[in-house]
Specification:
Elements (H helix, E strand, L loop, with lengths): L2 H17 L3 H10 L13 H8 L1 H25 L4 H16 L12 H13 L10 H4 L1 H17 L2 H18 L4 H17 L1 H8 L7
Length: about 210
């Protein structure tokens, strides 16, 4: 194994560990002293913090998780700005970390805020040859994905429905705007992870039992 490959493996592992930081768990535990997974939906995410601690703490949690998704890509940009395969693997590793955090026995959140951070990193950071198009097209996926979530949420007031709609649009947006194949594959992986994480929400949506906000 070459030393550069070893460094890249370390970056992927570090990205997973960084993504594993359970923001919602820490915020809830610091205020109530127990496990957020015993409340509301049982999810370790910002939406559940809104239910248990209120909108202020929920918004803080969501912003922190978005930053958590963005930061590894920002660091990677300064080290390997042209390695799109590594970028794609790191992006997936961060989301996996959020969904299956090692620190709390692999039961984490649904990955949407972390995924938004990842989408922001790929859309706004100038990685080399990531897309063969003008700048406004490069940032378009972020607005398409976030816009889809926002529109569906405003209409139906159901966070999970907006998240699933955004997960469907996600790989399509990256593909149609001409992003490199590794990024398109990574975006498909984020969406698959989102669907897996929302499997209980999907059942409740089918039976009309999903809670609104």
């Amino acid at each position: 194994m070459g030393i550069e490959l070893f460094y890249k493996i370390l970056i992927v592992i570090a990205s997973y560990l960084f993504g594993s930081f359970p923001t919602a768990y820490i915020v809830h535990r610091s205020k109530k002293g127990d496990d957020i997974r015993n409340y509301g939906s049982g999810n370790v995410g910002g939406t559940n913090v809104v239910r248990t601690l209120g909108a202020g703490y929920g918004a803080t949690t969501i912003i922190a998780d978005v930053v958590k998704g963005f930061t590894p890509l920002l660091v990677l940009y300064f080290i390997y700005p042209a390695d799109l395969i590594l970028l794609s693997i790191v992006s997936v590793a961060v989301v996996i970390g959020h969904d299956f955090p090692v620190y709390i026995r692999f039961k984490g959140g649904k990955g949407m805020a972390a995924s938004i951070g990842v989408v922001m990193g790929i859309s706004f950071l100038p990685f080399i040859d990531i897309v063969d198009s003008v700048v406004w097209v490069k940032i378009l996926p972020f607005f398409l994905i976030f816009g889809t979530w926002a529109i569906v949420f405003v209409i139906f007031r159901v966070v999970s429905l907006g998240s699933l709609a955004a997960a469907v649009v996600n790989p399509i947006a990256f593909y149609l705007t001409g992003f490199a194949l590794p990024v398109v594959i990574a975006s498909l992986c984020w969406s698959i992870l989102a669907v897996i994480a929302h499997r209980q929400n999907i059942k409740r949506l089918i039976y009309g039992e999903e809670k609104k906000i």
